[in-house]
């Protein structure tokens, strides 16, 4: 499938801040007024990196240690294959388990479980080991003493959330920083895999994923083009639509799926008011709610006549999705869940 044309560059994406729960990055701006076509177009760059940046990684073959890994905090020597690993950043528990590596210490996000439900469901083979995870605190305020007590061989974090404590972490164990934010998931997965000595395994996963996504786009394109898709997330007091340079947005781009004009902006997400509900509309709307209580934004918005009157609502094309993999944990297994969700809806 042809690729989706970005209306503007995405250079500012890496500077976006992280939401409080350690998940997708965000930046608020006025609604887009772009009239650029939402139809995929060839000859354009991907909305996020597809591999390890030049000058980073180790260049070493899989399983070879010691290895020196260039990363977003500098350069780190990992003397031997790590056995006791601490993961701090969003999606890194997902990434490690996808590679068959079970960490020792794990951090959690605000309002989230230490082990998200989708992780437990996706990796039943590690159920017993996951009950033994050492809780090292909130991703935004980790327990340094708990990490040190593990005596880890490797600490994995991301620049977005842990740059300020990188030097402290590095005194405890070799520490590798990925970049963070959902649109960087492929790059960060490959860089993490390099630190673990499993780059080839990760690259095979990414290549297969990208091929599967393209096949989805080919299957639903037809003569009239791919359907438009919209990504919406509600928290207790906020409503946001997600753009092309976001985790779900990148996956949709890989599939060649079109986006509505209202979501042709060059940042991860933007807030919308109840008066702006139409900005969320598309042929298909994929929506999650972190809080669905009676006083939540989800309850207010989704009972609003402007919401129930959207074409996606009247055609029964609003799909409720799991908040953790779609909007919080930008890892490879989460990406597979998002792609499977798109397939289930669009190929039905």
Features:
about 350 residues; alpha/beta; six-stranded mixed sheet; 15 strands; disordered N terminus
Instruction: Profile the largest sheet.
Output: 6 strands, mixed
Order of helices and strands: EEEEEHEHHEEHEHHEHHEEHEEHHHEHH
- Report, as a whole number of angstroms, the end-to-end distance: 19 Å
Look at the structure and give the mean pLDDT.
Answer: 87
Shape: globular
Helix content: 25-40%
User: How many helical stretches?
Assistant: 14
> Which structural category do the helix and sheet elements fall into?
alpha/beta
Strand content: 15-25%
Biggest sheet: strands side by side, in what order?
A: 8-7-6-5-9-10
Low-confidence spans: pLDDT under 50, at least 5 residues?
Answer: 1-43
Spatial extent as radius of gyration: 20 Å
Question: How many DSSP-defined strands?
Answer: 15
Could you describe the 3D structure shown?
With 348 residues, the protein is an alpha/beta fold. 32% of the residues lie in helices and 17% in strands. It contains 14 helices and 15 strands. It has helices at residues 92-98, 117-122, 127-130, 144-150, 159-162, 166-172, 185-196, 199-221, 247-254, 297-302, 305-308, 311-314, 323-328, 332-346, and strands at residues 17-18, 25-26, 67-71, 74-78, 85-87, 105-108, 134-138, 141-142, 154-158, 175-178, 229-234, 239-242, 269-271, 284-289, 318-320. The chain has a 6-stranded mixed beta sheet with strand order 8-7-6-5-9-10. The two termini are 19 Å apart. The model is unreliable at 1-43 (pLDDT under 50).
